[in-house]
User: Which sequence fits this backbone?
């Protein structure tokens, strides 16, 4: 088939006319933290033999880039905990220079940025998302269970020193960090970080009561606007966040509201797991196995066909519901499987 400007296969358009240009790849389901809203303390991880090798991940991602993906985000689990992950990142960086890819980026808990930031920059990465829900070291321990606050702070310093722009992801947790929005906005302003506040999503059994944690972002925003002036912008990153500028700091603040705001109509992304399963929607269970076609042949045509077939099943929207009476989890898989 005729292709895009770089001569690849035709870009993938789903049945609702959305071009699929954003691939999120979970490179491992493992993590050095055990955040309370993401994992239970005693998680069972995938056997290593089920994982795609780094070479297989590279080949799959490269097929997506050839098929029109412009933005690639590595996530997890903790992506920087995957052994030899820099090898994959350096290799994917080759698509940045005129190779079709516009952005290669990562979502990380920040614990390994001390050792990897320079390498990330050298591989062509320019921005990183770092998850940080609190600036209070004791609370940080409560939320992440195994995380070390100082290590993340050192990681953030290293990222900035290497020239990486940082965006902080903060999950709003009622009764946990809902007294910290002002401090977080001020600190991000001082550090030159953008901030994205995320509503907690009902994914996976984590042994906690989600209704206790859930806090609608409309409430968060109202709270913030008591002390800060937010001006709407049309800044878009290709992700689901809606952004405003905090006039007092000049930094951006984004809100991701999957439960209270429907952003599906502009959804341009799909998610690949470390076992080669492609999820067409974060909020739905329908998935396609790409590992079998990947391993069945060394040429990419059957794989491309499997990708097209999968995207032809991308649903119009998601089904997230927090059931207020039963506190039910509506999507059984953990966020660490698909990486958020
Ligand atoms: N380990 C990396 C990190 O923490 O940034 C990448 C993977 S983590 C699953 C990606 C993002 O999902 C993080 O910002 C995390 O806070 C968020 N997340 C995890 N579980 C969530 C949930 N149930 N609801 C909302 N966000 C969640
Ligand atoms: Fe690990 Fe990220 Fe999940 Fe926390 S949110 S447990 S850092 S994967």
Assistant:
């Amino acid at each position: 088939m005729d292709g895009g400007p770089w001569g690849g296969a035709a870009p993938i358009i789903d049945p609702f006319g959305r071009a699929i240009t954003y691939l999120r790849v979970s490179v491992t389901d493992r993590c050095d933290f055990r955040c309370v809203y993401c994992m239970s303390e005693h998680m069972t991880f995938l056997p290593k033999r089920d994982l795609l090798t780094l070479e297989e991940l590279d080949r799959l991602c490269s097929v997506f880039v050839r098929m029109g993906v412009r933005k690639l985000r590595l996530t997890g689990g903790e992506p920087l905990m995957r052994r030899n992950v820099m090898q994959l990142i350096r290799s994917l960086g080759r698509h940045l220079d005129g190779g079709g890819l516009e952005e290669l980026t990562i979502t990380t808990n920040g614990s390994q940025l001390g050792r990897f930031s320079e390498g990330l920059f050298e591989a062509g990465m320019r921005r990183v998302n770092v998850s940080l829900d609190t600036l209070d070291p004791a609370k940080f321990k409560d939320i992440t269970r195994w995380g070390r606050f100082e290590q993340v702070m050192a990681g953030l310093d290293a990222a900035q020193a290497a020239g990486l722009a940082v965006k902080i992801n903060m999950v709003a947790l009622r009764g946990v960090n809902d007294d910290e929005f002002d401090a977080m906005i001020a600190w991000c302003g001082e550090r030159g970080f953008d901030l994205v506040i995320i509503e907690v999503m009902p994914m996976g059994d984590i042994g906690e009561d989600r209704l206790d944690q859930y806090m609608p972002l409309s409430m968060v925003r109202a709270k913030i606007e008591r002390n800060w002036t937010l001006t709407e912008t049309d800044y878009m990153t290709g992700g689901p966040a809606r952004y405003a500028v905090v006039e007092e700091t000049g930094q951006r603040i984004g809100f991701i509201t999957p439960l209270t705001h429907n952003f599906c109509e502009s959804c341009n992304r799909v998610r690949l797991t470390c076992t080669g399963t492609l999820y067409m929607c974060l909020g739905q269970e329908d998935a396609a196995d790409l590992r079998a076609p990947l391993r069945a042949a060394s040429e990419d045509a059957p794989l491309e066909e499997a990708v097209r077939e999968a995207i032809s099943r991308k649903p119009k929207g998601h089904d997230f519901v927090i059931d207020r009476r039963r506190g039910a989890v509506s999507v059984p898989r953990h966020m660490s499987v698909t990486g958020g």
Q: What stands out?
A: Residues 1-7, 321-329 have pLDDT under 50 and may be disordered.
